[in-house]
Give the backbone structure.
Amino acid sequence: MPLPAIKGLLFDLDGVLYVDNQAVDGAIEAVQKIRASGLPCRFVTNTSTLSIASLQQKLAGLGFEVDPREIISAPQATLLYLQRQPNPVCRLLLADDVRRDFAGFKQSDTDANFIVIGDIGDAWTYPLLNQLFKCLMHGARLIAIHKNKFWQTAYGLQMDIGGFIDALEYASGSKALIIGKPSPDFFKVALDDMGIAAHEAAIIGDDIDADVGGGQQSGLQGILVKTGKYRQSYAEASAVKPDFVLASVADLPELLGI
């Protein structure tokens, strides 16, 4: 059954268009067909290891033609949020490439009023968690670029930062501000950029919680693909029920009647 009356699409990146450094089979051709039809697209990601410029370069290197202005990332949304705060002093737990985008903010390891957490790979340690806990107990605000549980790599599933966010929330009694998907504010940025309403859009993702569930809660249609982090048992146990399920993004043009 074709997808009805869609005026814009949001594509998740990792796990949908590519996994690590390999494009998903048929993804390049699918995006080309959809763009040739005139349907507006935005590329939305919780990835917090790459700047917008690096994301665009990665996509181009894999064969996707994407304007950097069409990419909306959780770190970018975090940056905009902090710019609206009075005198933010930050403790930044970010990959070096993304951290450079935040160079204009005052930074402190001990006297921060905002703790910003993204992907820092293997740098997590108990002493680091304890430092952050102490900052939170002194009134710092916890900002999570996202709260994903796990993600797909070339070596299989890997734990994401969501568990560390949970630990800090539990110990400190504070609640993190989640910037990326499934935050309704994040989806609104993409929708406003395309100039369409939520019910006129669909998101396609491999994460049944952040992508599909988050999109549906914001009024979009949610399309789940069986690539990337998708696991049948996890999807079947979820309370989220996708509007459509596809083997991969390669099947999306047919669903759209393109």
